[in-house]
Amino acid sequence: MRPDQHRQADDAAKSASRLKVGFVLARSFTLSAFALFVDTLRLASDEQDRSGRVLADWQVIGSTRHLITASCGVQVAPTSDFVDPSKFNYIVVVGGLLTVENPVDQETIAFLKQADAKKVPLIGVCTGSFILAAAGLMKRHDSCVSWLHYKEFRERFPDLSVRSDRLFNLDRQRGSCAGGSSSADMAALLVRKYISRDAERNALEVLQIERARAAADVQPRRPLYDNYDDARVKAAMITMEQFVDGSMSIEKLASTVGLSRRQLERIFIDKTGMSPAKAYNRVRMERAKSILAQSKAPLIEIALDVGFENASQFTRTFKRTFGQTPSQHRAASRAH
């Protein structure tokens, strides 16, 4: 084989081994989520900050070459038409504003279904998981969304599994993440898997990110009631907020953070000085207190929202917790 043929063969081998990602951008997509994901790939693909597509490649793919406007107003042009999805290791759907009625067109939905049929893993970034779920592509998979969008996901897709106490989720065929800086964390995981830890480290250092967070890391949000230094307690408290109607059993709550009920109770007593059941009740009462101060909703409506069958039972529990009745609290809040 001639030297030039050797070089061509080496180039072909390198190209075949590269991490290849296709990005689908929704109308009014979140620019930061896309930028952090793609820039992690860019910086991992070459040494220092040369931006060469040596170890990774990416395309913004779409049904047209029309500019796609992000929620902040910046426009991005697709770099490729829809091609055979099996050319990519992953198809990443970057969502954005949930108020947009049709975030992607039917050709895009058909392309995503084609990718699924060819076993190409699909990832929903930010609200991209909403797009995948609406297309029927999140069945039998967990969706990880921001705490900000958790309630709406449950309302739109009540039969699907969703959580917002983690940064991202990734299995063999699906991935989803809360968006924001967690986009870089998920991209870093792909870099580590397909390229190397050195490439991951280079990307994060240039991005001024100290370390890549793991999928199990808790979303950085201060819970409604309090904040604690144990990730399992934080995750459990966030889950309590999401099921503020009291419908989550302590056993199920423990299982969501990988513990038995007894282990969860022991950790709660140690870290918070109260049992999970008492903490759950306090979270519900804090939510009720917030609603009382911010709305004119009748007591029975608030009582039902936080899991009580009647207003009298709610009133007794509220007074036992805060030393005043709901009506007294509402009057005091308005006086201020």
UniProtKB/TrEMBL annotation:
Membrane-spanning intervals of the chain: 21-38
An example Gene Ontology molecular-function term: sequence-specific DNA binding
Keyword list, A-Z: DNA-binding, Membrane, Plasmid, Transcription, Transcription regulation, Transmembrane, Transmembrane helix
Alphabetized InterPro entries for the sequence: Class_I_gatase-like (IPR029062), DJ-1/PfpI (IPR002818), Homeodomain-like_sf (IPR009057), HTH_AraC (IPR018060), HTH_AraC-typ_CS (IPR018062), INH-QAR (IPR052158), Tscrpt_reg_AraC-type_HTH (IPR020449)
Sequence ranges assigned to domain HTH araC/xylS-type in this UniProt record: 234-332
Iron-sulfur in keyword set: no
Keyword Transmembrane helix: yes
Descriptive protein name: AraC family transcriptional regulator
Lineage of origin: Bacteria, Pseudomonadati, Pseudomonadota, Alphaproteobacteria, Hyphomicrobiales
